[in-house]
Design goal:
Blueprint: E1 3-7, H1 11-22, E2 26-30, H2 34-53, H3 59-67, E3 69-72, H4 75-78, E4 84-87, H5 93-106, E5 112-115, H6 122-126, E6 135-140, E7 149-154, H7 160-172, E8 176-181, H8 188-204, H9 210-221, H10 227-234, H11 236-250, H12 259-266
Parallel strand pairs: 1-2, 1-4, 2-3, 4-5, 5-6, 7-8
Antiparallel strand pairs: 6-7
Helix pairs in contact: 1-2, 8-10, 8-11, 11-12
């Protein structure tokens, strides 16, 4: 497996491309938007500079890594010789479904098609193709070059050889793969997102403020960041989308998104990406955003 294609040059896509290229794979990084591609490659270069400053890589390694990344807006051409394609587009079933239909048409017959989805059914995406046994989930964690876990999600029809290949490939990247089955939220988000949602409920109910909730979880539970700060980092729109998948999948009220989360997303307060969420990420990054503003 030498030729990799990554669909989507956003946060996860450029991180996945960075990781594969740094592990000596040729990577076609695909996005429909030329500006997004340029930003994605610029982000990779910036992150490589950070590694360089910490003496984790050499200047030569940085140059080699960037040379292995081939940006493209032409999906058909970029995946025509791919051994593995990893879709890292928006967490939206309709968008992913259309991409998988195209990949099934454009890719070589033996290519494995993976998705970086954090919650959408692998089995459902596989059903849109003529190669369901070759569809699998590779859920990387953000930031991809640093985080060790890859949640490898086996769909109902994913074959044993494909699963074994992806497990071994993840180890080749220096990651720790964990195989899980295809149910809403898998393992990571089935546990994490209800916790984040409950933290938002705690704020919504006036039990404590943003800083207080995050401080309790950081100092009391030894979490590296509080759940509200983590929600900002993930993106509140992404958190909402995952909670909606859980709620739809389990039909259980405990997975219902908090009204405050819904309102914040409607108001365009997405967290770091919009520079405003539970915290203020404007230039000084100093002020907590009052949740009451969005209630």
């Amino acid at each position: 497996m030498k030729n990799i294609a990554v669909i989507g040059a956003g946060t996860m896509g450029n991180g996945i491309a960075h990781t594969f290229a740094q592990s000596d794979f040729t990577v076609h990084l695909v996005d429909i938007n030329e500006d997004s591609l340029e930003k994605g490659v610029a982000t990779i270069s910036k992150n490589l500079d950070r590694q360089l400053s910490k003496e984790r890589i050499t200047e030569a390694k940085k140059k080699e890594t960037l040379q292995r990344i081939i940006p493209s807006t032409d999906m058909q051409n970029a995946v025509s010789e791919a051994d593995l394609v990893i879709e890292a587009a928006s967490e939206n079933l309709q968008i992913k479904t259309e991409i998988f239909k195209k990949l099934d048409e454009y890719c070589p017959a033996n290519a494995i098609l993976a998705t970086n989805t954090s919650s959408i059914s692998i089995t459902q995406l596989a059903a849109q193709t003529k190669r369901p046994e070759q569809i699998i989930g590779m859920h990387f964690m953000n930031p991809v070059p640093i985080m060790k876990l890859v949640e490898v999600i086996r769909g109902y029809t994913t074959s044993e050889p494909v699963t074994n290949t992806i497990m071994a490939l993840s180890e080749q990247l220096g990651k720790t793969p964990v195989e899980v089955n295809d149910y809403p939220g898998f393992v990571a988000n089935r546990i994490l997102m209800p916790m984040i949602n409950e933290a938002i409920e705690t704020l919504y109910n006036g039990v404590a403020g943003v800083m207080e909730i995050d401080t309790v979880m950081r100092l009391g539970m030894a979490h590296p960041m509080g759940p509200l700060q983590l929600a900002d980092f993930i993106g509140l729109d992404v958190c909402l989308a995952i909670m909606e998948v859980l709620y739809e999948g389990f039909k259980n009220p405990k997975y219902a998104p908090c009204p405050l989360l819904v309102n914040m997303v409607r108001a365009g307060k997405m967290g770091i990406k919009s520079k405003e969420g539970f915290y203020d990420y404007s230039e000084n990054r100093k002020a907590e955003v009052p949740a009451a503003q969005f209630a």
